[in-house]
Amino acid sequence: MSTTYTDLVKQTFYFPQEGFDTRDGYLTFNGLDLKQLIDKYGTPLKISYLPKIGMQIRKAKDMFAHSIKKHRYEGKYFYCYCTKSSHFSFVVQEALKHDIHLETSYAYDIDIIQKLYEKKKINKEINIICNGYKQKTYTSRIARLLNTGFKNTIPVLDNKEELDNYKRSVKVPFKLGIRVAAEEEPTFPFYTSRLGFRAKDILEFYVDHIEGYEHKFQLKMLHIFLNKGIKDDIYYWSELNKVINLYCQLKKICPELDSINIGGGFPIKHSLGFDYDYQFMIDEIIRTIKKSCKAAKVPMPNIYTEFGSYTVGESMAHIYSVIGQKVQNDREIWYMIDSSFITTLPDTWGIGEKFLMLPINKWENDYQRVVLGGITCDSHDYYDSEEHINEVFLPKLNGEDSKEPLYVGFFHTGAYQDQISGYGGIKHCMIPSPKHVIIEHDRNGKLVDWVYAKEQSAQSMLKLLGYM
Fold it and tell me: 26-29 and 174-179 as β-strands: parallel, antiparallel, unpaired?
């Protein structure tokens, strides 16, 4: 019986598959020669493969276009990028190449909008959806955008008092959205999201505070976001139908209302066993909205999405070397990596997130169950299970191939990890941030790689801590 790692993968999954294959005994990622990059830059290493961002955007836009045509849907579709997933300029600017719009969540996002405009990466026609619970620093920046001609900026009201800030500071007619508070899953310790209005309060709020002021501001959008994402289950369809029914009621007294924003929530591949029918879900969303609007005899709304993880998540990989093996008892074998999960992939310990994990080399070695350990002194710095199974299997470390360490890659890590861990700051146990390499197309369409950030130095951290 064959027990190589190659056999394990091919017996468990369809392999090769989109984005992953092997070449000359080494794993490739979207066709990239990972061994060549490791030889050039070393480990630990972060790789951002920017072309994947455009591939994701085109895929979603094509599927929505197909569904709109198939169902003869009468509204338009708008793809927004959720900036909080990754604020890096190279990410946002790459996404903007594909005719998208932006969603913000905090005051400083508006400063990014201004910089993008100054660099002529956007114009004042772009849709900017402003979400979140807003302090004065945020509402004042939104007002500045509106007053300087960004007419498609839509502040989405999170509470009843927020509108008063815009009444005082915005000097031009403007558009509004309202976020509908979603019911949370039964596993949550509370019933209703802290974000948005209670659904039963929205009609009354519209009549009391918006109706009759159409010359100053107009309600254009209802917004909903579900923390668990867009999934084919009773919970999702129940919450979606709630906002659709509310739209139909409001539309009859608010002719200006013309859009539903269903937020983000498309999942990304965190396992070779990933199976999600994007086109089916889009078809059902389009069909459900159309059916309800036809029954209520109201026009079909435009549909906005705010895909963050879906846009950028699959564009990044983290690569580590296994620098040692420890056998601590009869059942557990530890592979120690040359970095830390707490500092580089904080979701793995913070919320138990699983990423797509594969070895880069030694695919023809036998495999064994292991636990991956980081080099901090924290007992939580480990990774012991994959999404499809509560175990981790990796090639054995044979003595005869000790000249080259085992390289392990964590893929589709591009969303939130740098924001949560604090890019360039002080990390747990002062473990340095790894070298960050960007891979993109140059003006001639050729792939080029360059260093965005070197490995964090001791001097840079000592300066932050006040020692220099």
Answer: unpaired
Give residue 370's pLDDT: 94
Selected from 3.40.190.10, 3.90.1180.10, 2.40.37.10, 1.10.10.10, the CATH number assigned to the domain covering 5-50+313-464 reads 2.40.37.10
Burial class (CB in 10 A: 0-12, 13-18, 19+), 122: buried
Residue with tokens 């932006």: 102
Residue length of the chain: 468
Q: How far apart are CA 167 and CA 146, in angstroms?
A: 12
What are the beta bridge partners of residue 49? Answer: 439
Please write the tens of the pLDDT for every residue from 321-345: 999 999 988 888 999 999 999 988 8
348-368: pLDDT as tens digits: 877 778 899 999 999 999 999
- The DSSP bridge pattern shows strands 45-49 and 316-327 to be antiparallel
Domain positions in the chain are: 5-50+313-464, 73-307
Least confident of 160-169, 182-191, 238-247, 272-281: 182-191
Residue owning tokens 């036809």: 294
The partner residues of 320 in beta bridges, in order of sequence, read 408
DSSP code per residue over 155-213: EEE-STTHHHHHHHH--S-EEEEEEBPPBPPTTSSSSB-SSSB-HHHHHHHIIIIITT-
**pLDDT: is 3 or 40 the higher one?**
40
Tell me: the pLDDT tens digits for 118-153? Answer: 999 999 999 999 999 999 999 999 999 999 999 999
User: Is the distance from CB of 70 to CB of 283 less than 8 angstroms?
Assistant: yes
Q: Which CATH number fits domain 73-307: 3.20.20.10, 3.40.50.620, 2.60.40.1930, 3.40.50.720?
A: 3.20.20.10
First CA to last CA distance, the chain: 60
Supply the pLDDT for residue 190: 52
In this structure, the strands spanning 259-261 and 367-373 are: unpaired
Q: Which one-letter DSSP state was computed for residue 412?
A: S
When mean pLDDT is compared across 12-26, 203-217, 425-439, the lowest value belongs to 425-439
What's the chain's average pLDDT? 92
Question: What is the b/e burial string over 40-72, where b = at least 16 CB atoms within 10 angstroms of the residue's CB?
Answer: ebebbbbbbbbebbbebbeebbebbeebbeebe
Strands of 74-130 (E only): list them: 77-82, 101-104, 128-130
* Rg over CA atoms, the chain: 24
Q: Is 109 helix (H, G, I), strand (E, B) or coil?
A: helix
